[in-house]
From TrEMBL, chain A:
The keyword Translocase does not apply. This is DNA modification/repair radical SAM protein. Residues 53-298 form the Radical SAM core domain. Pfam families: Radical_SAM. CDD domains: Radical_SAM.
Automatic annotation (TrEMBL), chain B:
This is Type-4 uracil-DNA glycosylase. The keyword Membrane does not apply. The keyword Transmembrane does not apply. Belongs to the uracil-DNA glycosylase (UDG) superfamily. Type 4 (UDGa) family. GO terms for molecular function: 4 iron, 4 sulfur cluster binding; deaminated base DNA N-glycosylase activity; metal ion binding. It comes from the Bacteria.
Length: 412, 489
């Protein structure tokens, strides 16, 4: 077999990395090459340098160090039993690619993940070598996201956190039984312990950085940790999934839980469902996740035991409002922030605008068109001095009137 | 009508000087017409020239205005100058105007700023540098970009901070900027051919773009809303998009048609190796802890982070058994490290007990909690959960064979001794379990929950209880004579 060129390896190892949903490059500490020498900057806001036709942003060079792997996770294209073509980058090759791409302004930085070769510790050490070289030899100030390996030595994971803006460990699946079944070498408790260990470490480091008199002590992984779970490969309900993610947020201070709708992979395993999960389910989960984190919703309100699956046709806030009509209409001129946030069709920005505008005088129905995206959508749920929804709110066909026209979201 | 012709498209200072002059004379917005350089001047009504000296009127603007002005003036809309003047005019009478998102002028201003910001953001994202060779030790790059607005000055500092160590130039139709490691130099507009047509790394970038795309989830609208087609002509990767979309369906169909594959032969080799590793014999406590980590006899195991194992010397004379791990114990994987643990450490210290010499564990091995908003709220284990966990702690006792066991709290007492007696009875006397004597007192977290006035006496009684321990141990045979049960390895 002819030796693989860099492009050959890149094709294999980027293809292998595309199932990781995260592309975030935001929320890290501010730094730049003008102050530090070297190259690169992070200024808080993430930048998406390109978009692929799958609608996902390309912010980071997202690659695997290698797709050789001794684990056998059914859902993963790189599992030991898969027949996919294998490749491996040397640390130097990854450093070179990252810098070449960065200097041409293609990327914000690097998202490095890897299959497990030899053992978890050896793999982690190789990954650390990449980020250490970037940071220490090239004074690279760009963003680095490292996917750590759950059963690697905790010391190595902390070493990784020293260089990375963000570290992540995939929880993989919403329930421990599914992890046992589909990822036999991993375990839920091992993954959670790794997250807990990282959290306590990051908390301790952040405390140290805060109390340090001069800001010499750099907080480890300033953009925190995140995780990803596959949706639709097992039978877990949306309620199960949201319950798992809310305990991950609360327990380990995660910045983000990414949901990845299960889709068929090349060289698929016998153990997996043949059908793909509708992308809209993933979308609804993100909406529900947002409602719980930023809108004050409790899980029982969105996906309680009585209706564990989110409605695919309408967003979860509207679905909740239709069952809680006694809490509406809401007076736009008087309601507090929490109440306004619960009105279907009002986002955080619109609520901020409403609150700012009503300090200048009572809002009339016509004013709202300048403040919110769609007055038609919120109309049944609100009152203003010159508007009440009347029977609209109690109408049996309210759902039909507000649900978006059915649309073909995916081809298969 | 006063006619103002500006020298620059986006010089906030120039506009401000002029606007200040006009406004200080009380010249109404309707009486001024603004023109940017190169604009067609309509002289139908003849234009008066602006006054030369400042007028009597004192002007003031909110703090935020200069910054908003700096950004809004970069918009390409020719009406921006007069909108800004109208705002300046109105601000003299309505100082809170800018904080009203329902005002039409404010909305218009915010609209200008938003589209300038978006243009800046897209410039930061979509500029593509090409290598133009080294000069000395410095790498040099150049890019061609076509922004919608006059934003080269706004975005240049971003590129300077990011690419400080290389020389670079960005050319746009209206303006150009170059960085040489020392300063930013702005120049006139340029043409596309100021930049070479290719770059060696672009093929790698295109290969990456093709490979990172997932054909199983085509969402073209999501792409074009963030990367509108107007930018495509200057993005090397964009030329690949039509083929990627056209071929996606066929790739997915092929994937599904191929169906599941047989495992690759490598698999069995690894399976055997792993099986071998698992068969190796382990010391009894290690084996117990491994089984324990997998325990799902009750539902709390799946929610907890990890099992909190006991810790301490395996030949300890004293074993301390608490109730259940709390939040900190769950995160750190060690018993008694949270607030209750700190209180216990203090009390042990005062009672003359060395925690390092004791084996410390819990009656229930996993943290149990309910979600209270965004927090994990500790919940007490049910009797059923205590019973299901009982076997683990009893096996720990079997392995360690302590001479004395100290139970903290009613849960530990129920777990080990199966008693539901009230604490005031339990702590009075000495009990027995297996070959060990058993002393019982309250759990330190009970002390933390007491009203503040009751805490001090309760703590004293707690230390008093603990103080019995060293005396009891003194009355027992020393470690060397501790009868060791032979355990199957």
């Amino acid at each position: 077999m002819a030796a693989q060129t860099i492009i050959d390896k890149l094709k294999i190892l980027a293809d292998a990395a595309k199932y990781d949903a995260s592309c975030a490059s935001s929320g890290s500490s501010k730094r730049n090459s003008l102050q530090s020498g070297g190259i690169g900057s992070t200024e808080g806001m993430g930048i998406c340098h390109a978009y692929a036709p799958d609608g996902r942003c390309i912010s980071l060079l997202k690659i695997l160090m290698t797709n050789f792997c001794i684990y056998d996770c059914s859902y993963c294209i790189n599992r030991v039993s898969s027949n996919v073509e294998r490749a491996r980058f040397t640390p130097q090759e990854i450093v070179r690619l990252t810098l070449d791409f960065y200097k041409r302004n293609y990327i914000e930085g690097l998202f490095l993940s890897s299959g497990v070769i030899r053992n978890a510790d050896y793999t982690m050490e190789q990954m650390i070598e990449v980020v250490r070289t970037l940071r220490e030899e090239h004074l690279f100030q760009g963003y680095i996201h490292l996917k750590t390996i759950p059963n690697a030595d905790p010391i190595l994971r902390l070493e990784a956190a020293k260089f990375a803006d963000r570290v992540s460990i995939n929880i993989e699946l919403p329930k421990d039984q599914s992890i046992d079944r589909f990822a036999p070498e991993k375990s839920g408790t091992e993954i959670r312990s790794a997250m807990a260990h990282m959290r306590t470490h990051l908390d301790d480091e952040a405390d140290k950085a805060k109390t340090a008199r001069r800001r010499k002590v750099k907080a480890a992984s300033p953009a925190g940790q995140s995780t990803q779970m596959i949706v639709g490969a097992d039978a877990a309900s949306d309620g199960d999934i949201l319950k798992t993610s809310s305990s991950l947020y609360a327990g380990y201070g995660l910045r983000r839980v990414y949901y990845s709708a299960y889709s068929p992979i090349p060289d698929t395993s016998l153990h997996l469902p043949p059908l793909k999960t509708p992308l809209i389910r993933e979308h609804r989960l993100y909406q529900a996740d947002w409602l719980m984190r930023f809108y004050g919703f409790e899980i029982e309100e969105i996906a309680g035991p009585d209706r564990p699956m989110l409605d695919l046709d309408i967003d979860p806030k509207l679905a909740w409002a239709l069952t809680a009509r006694d809490r509406f209409p809401v007076d736009i001129n008087r309601a507090d922030r929490e109440t306004l946030l619960r009105v279907p069709g009002l986002g955080v920005k619109a609520v901020n605008r409403i609150i700012a505008a009503r300090r200048h005088g009572r809002l009339r129905y016509a004013d709202l068109s300048r403040l919110v995206q769609s007055v038609r959508k919120i109309a049944p749920f609100i009152v203003t001095g010159d508007w009440t929804p009347g029977g609209m709110l109690d109408a049996v066909d309210l759902r039909q009137r507000l649900a978006p026209a059915p649309e073909q979201l995916s081809l298969i | 009508m006063i006619r103002v012709t500006l020298d620059s498209q986006n010089d906030a200072d120039e506009w401000r000087e002029m606007a200040r002059l006009l406004c200080s004379h009380g010249i109404e917005p309707a009486d001024v017409s603004w023109a940017a350089p190169g604009a067609m001047v309509d002289d139908l009504f003849g234009g008066e020239t602006p006054p030369a000296e400042p007028g009597p009127r004192k002007l003031s603007v909110p703090k935020a205005f200069p910054d908003l002005l700096k950004r809004a003036i970069c918009h390409s809309d020719p009406a921006r100058f007069s909108l800004l003047y109208r705002l300046l005019w109105r601000l003299q009478k309505e100082p809170r105007l800018l904080s009203n998102p329902a005002d039409t002028d404010t909305i218009e201003l915010n609209g200008l700023i938003k589209s300038v910001s978006r243009d800046c953001h897209k410039m930061k994202a979509f500029v593509r540098f090409r290598d133009i060779g080294m000069e000395g030790a410095r790498e040099r790059f150049a890019a061609w970009f076509e922004p919608d607005h006059y934003i080269v000055e706004l975005t240049a500092p971003f590129f300077m901070r990011r690419f400080a160590s290389m020389d670079w130039a960005i050319y746009t139709p209206r303006r150009s900027v170059a960085w040489d490691g020392k300063q930013l130099v702005f120049g006139p507009g340029a043409t596309r051919d100021s930049v070479p047509a290719e770059d060696a790394v672009e093929d790698q970038w295109k290969a990456y773009y093709v490979s990172i795309f997932n054909p199983a989830r085509v969402k073209v609208n999501a792409m074009t809303s963030e990367m509108p087609k107007k930018y495509w002509k200057n993005l090397p990767e964009a030329a690949l998009i039509p083929d990627l979309i056209a071929g996606a369906q066929a790739r997915v169909t092929a994937m599904q048609a191929a169906g599941p594959s047989m495992p690759n032969p490598q698999t069995d080799k690894w399976r055997e190796k792993r099986a071998l590793e698992e068969e190796t014999g382990l010391p009894p406590m290690e084996a117990l802890n491994r089984q324990l980590a997998k325990c799902r006899d009750c539902p709390i195991g799946e929610c907890a982070t990890q099992v909190v194992k006991g810790e301490g010397p395996l030949d300890a004379r004293l074993m301390i058994i608490g109730e259940q791990p709390g939040d900190q114990e769950d995160l750190r994987g060690r018993p008694f490290v949270g607030p209750a643990g700190q209180l216990l450490d203090k009390a042990l210290d005062e009672a003359g007990i060395d925690r390092q010499q004791a084996y410390v564990t819990n009656a229930v091995k996993h943290f149990k909690y309910s979600m209270r908003g965004k927090r994990r709220q500790h919940q007490r284990p049910t009797a059923d959960e205590i019973r299901r966990c009982r076997d683990w702690v009893r096996r720990e006792v079997e392995i360690v064979q302590p001479q004395l066991i100290l139970l903290l709290g009613a849960t530990a007492a129920y777990s080990l001794l199966d008693t539901r007696k009230p604490m005031r009875d339990l702590r009075q006397s000495l009990w027995g379990y297996d070959a060990a004597q058993v002393a019982i007192t309250v759990h330190p977290s009970y002390l933390l929950r007491l009203p503040e006035a009751e805490q001090a006496p309760a703590y004293e009684a707690f230390v008093e209880d603990l103080s019995r321990i060293p005396r009891l141990l003194d009355g027992l045979p020393p470690l060397s004579q501790k009868a060791k049960l032979s355990l199957p390895v």
